[in-house]
Amino acid sequence: MALSLANPCQRRLTFVPNAQIPARRPSFLAAAAGPLPVLGIETSCDDTGAAVVTSDGKILGEALRSQAELLRQYGGVMPLAARLNHEQAIDEVVAQALENAKVKESDLAAVAVTIGPGLSLCLDVGVRKARSISRCWRLPFVGVHHMEAHALVARLTNADIQFPFLVLLVSGGHNLLLIAKDVGDYVELGTTLDDAVGEAYDKTARLLGLDICKGGGPALEELALEGDADAFKFTVPMRSHKDCNFSYAGLKTQVKLTIESLNINGAVPLASASSSDRQSRANVAASFQVVAVRHLEDRCRRALEWARELEPCMKRMVIAGGVASNKYLRSRLGAVAKEHQLDLFFPPPRLCTDNGVMVAWTGVEYLRLGLYDPPPPVDEPEDYWVDLRPRWKLGEICRETSSGRPVKKNTEDFPSLTSQISQKKSALNAS
């Protein structure tokens, strides 16, 4: 039964504290005679995704419904419209993924779904669908952290990525630098203080009048190829700060003022711009991109210093998230990795953006450890709600002390994924 969008706050939300930490049971994956299929569902923001991945890492089938037209229409994500689009697409997307995988719901071994972070109205759609399948077919249920899924999907495509490794997550809503110590065990070295790099790309693309139906980042990167990166001397953010955090608000302001000074009218599409106007836009795009990526380079170098203090054997780095498909970024961070003698890994570009594959694979990672929830009760009412986490820290926070050395501290708000898994493992070891 679909929820009314007229007043979504009328939903009865029932939170179950004990469900916040997954139950741990012996892994049935290890005991299985062959690879088992796991369904993953992703609806955290503006794409509806589903995929079936086997326990040995084979992608059987996937499907994705983009909301590109909505993004272009509204100039960004509108939560109510995004939710309605998810509701209209979810059944078809899941059915298409299963059909492409040549499996039925009854063939599945488990269901994984993104439960946070993200837009609550959107997360709601995917979780309800996943719980319905889990309840109907009595399948184990795995609630997935969206950013962990981005971090782990590279392990699906490259078996050489062993823990620990450094992770840079770059997307429209998040910048994160992490040490991945194990599945469910992360140390946060740096995060976004204001705007993420993907949001800065999107905003700049809109100001330049680019077609963002396929994303502002790809459109800006393409235009930047025509420009002079030395045309405008934008300031690299936070060079005087010796931490690993990110800030793109100041750079966005610099770019906005420059565009205004050039009398560039973003309401005029790039295709309609004069040759001189197009060149000016391309110069802004190229100059912006160099500085935006240089900020990432600076933070990564700092994070590597910290990471090797905490994990001296650090030899690998993963770049993930939607912006990780940017070719210029890949080239520049490849140079940083080489400079620090790190093996660098990227997911394939199609797995950098939000998708069901990364959720299904994260489900596999947890199922291998025996960390999953039982299926919902058969008589669970339609308005029953569990485990929705729009704001959810991934790991312990690492910050610099007065001596310049990194120290870890627990998150101060809702318990992070890492602290929850740690508590559960400690309880299991003590029992």
Describe this structure in words.
The chain is an alpha/beta fold and 431 residues long. 40% of the residues lie in helices and 17% in strands. It has helices spanning 28-31, 68-74, 79-101, 120-137, 146-157, 197-207, 216-224, 249-261, 275-310, 327-339, 356-368, 417-430; strands at 37-42, 47-54, 59-66, 110-116, 141-145, 165-170, 175-182, 185-191, 316-320, 343-345, 396-400, 406-409. Strand 11 and strand 12 (406-409) form a beta hairpin. Helix 9 (275-310) runs parallel beside helix 10. The protein is globular and about 65 Å long. The model is unreliable at 1-22 (pLDDT under 50).
Q: How would you summarize this macromolecular structure in one to three sentences?
A:
The protein is 40% helix and 17% strand. It has 431 residues and is of the alpha/beta class. Helix 6 runs parallel beside helix 8 (249-261) and helix 7 packs across helix 9 (275-310).
Please give a handful of descriptors for the protein shown.
7-stranded mixed β-sheet; 431 residues; alpha/beta; 40% helix; 5-stranded mixed β-sheet
Radius of gyration: 22 Å
What is the beta-strand fraction? 15-25%
The tally of strands reads: 12
Q: What class, by secondary structure content?
A: alpha/beta
What is the spatial order of strands in the main beta sheet? 10-9-6-7-8-11-12
What is the helix fraction of residues, given as a range? 40-55%
Biggest sheet features: 7 strands, mixed
The number of helical segments is: 12
Query: What is the straight-line distance between the termini?
Result: 41 Å
Shape: globular
Can you tell me the residue ranges where pLDDT is under 50 for at least 5 consecutive residues? Answer: 1-22
Q: Whole-number average pLDDT?
A: 87
Series of H and E elements: HEEEHHEHEHEEEHHHHEHEHEEH
